[in-house]
Design goal:
This protein has two domains: 3-88, Arc Repressor Mutant, subunit A, CATH 1.10.10; 111-263, Chorismate lyase-like (Chorismate lyase), CATH 3.40.1410.10. α2 crosses α4 (62-74) and α3 crosses α4. The protein is 22% helix and 25% strand. The chain starts with a helix and ends in a 15-residue tail after the last strand. The protein is elongated, with a radius of gyration of 21 Å. The strands form two sheets. Strands 3, 4, 5, 6, 7, 8 and 9 form a seven-stranded antiparallel β-sheet that branches. A two-stranded antiparallel ribbon has the order 1-2. By secondary structure, it is of the alpha+beta class. It contains eight helices and nine strands.
């Protein structure tokens, strides 16, 4: 049974499905279909319409649709079976709870130090760029409400072979970004370009007095897009790791969130320390 059989002609259309004459791109098709799966519009076990029908629906070519489905198959979202069609083999995005831990104190090597050690001599971070913006729907998974004015800090990490391997984007609410530690002169640290280095034994959040009591991480796969795709020299829509870390206050409000985009050929690790929360 196809999605159209079960839900009618417009079953694959989601709120952001392009309604225009300009030819839809591979990345846009991947995004629309993935969001339809995440929202339950397309369910596990459904068979998608044919490439011809999808091409007509999205006003694009069958070749573009086929390429998008091939990428989605590589992401483990669909199974393309010759002569049978395309079957959805993933359900909605779900949470996997690995446990709760106390955060590492800055008396141990920082994440950047450990990262450089594991990625070869000459590994480095690109310069940090700082700007102000307003959050959009694209930032919804950061937990910062849409329409919030934030300070955006972005940088790219390169391994020892000079290959870009991580794009990091930190959004800090203006209330948190304008905090100044005692004795500091000049622009608030989070609004200044370059590295922000707190005193030994302190996290940046604690040094600035953000009121962060815990940090949570969410890891998923998502198509690389925009500045992250460009920084990593990946084609738009390439499946990538998306790691969102959020600094939460006692009232569960997000003070800052960092979105890390990395190629799927990456590993994620933590070193858990039973020390005072930083």
């Amino acid at each position: 049974m196809t999605c159209q059989d079960r839900r009618g002609e417009d079953s694959l259309k989601v709120d952001n499905a392009p309604e225009r004459k300009v030819q839809v791109t591979q990345a846009e098709i991947i995004k629309a279909l993935t969001e339809a799966i995440d929202r339950g519009i397309i369910k596990y076990g459904d068979r998608l319409s044919t490439t011809r029908e999808l091409a007509e629906k999205y006003d694009t070519t069958q070749q573009t649709v086929a390429a998008a489905l091939t990428v989605m198959a590589g992401m483990g979202l669909v199974q393309v079976q010759r002569g049978v069609g395309t079957k959805v083999i993933a359900g909605r995005r779900r949470q996997i709870k690995l446990g709760s831990y106390r955060s590492a104190n800055r008396t141990v090597p920082t994440g950047t130090t450990a990262w450089k050690k594991e990625n070869g001599n000459g590994s480095k971070e690109g310069p940090t760029t700082v700007s102000q913006m307003v959050t959009t729907e694209e930032d919804a998974d950061t937990g910062i409400p849409v329409g919030t004015e934030v300070v955006e800090r972005t940088r790219t990490r390169f391994d020892g072979d000079d290959a870009p391997c991580q794009h990091k984007r930190t959004l800090v609410t203006v209330a948190a970004a304008t905090l100044i530690p005692e004795g500091w002169a000049g622009l608030p640290p989070m609004m200044s370009p370059g590295d922000v280095i707190p005193p030994d034994g302190m996290s940046i959040a604690k040094w600035l007095g953000m009121g962060v009591v815990r940090v949570v991480y969410e890891i998923s796969t998502a198509p690389a897009s925009g500045a992250a795709a460009a920084a990593l020299t990946l084609p738009e829509g390439t499946p990538s790791l998306r790691i969102v870390s959020k600094g939460l206050k006692e009232d569960d409000q997000v003070a800052y969130a960092t979105v890390t985009t990395a190629p799927l050929r990456s590993s994620v690790s933590w070193e858990i320390q039973d020390d005072e929360v930083g």
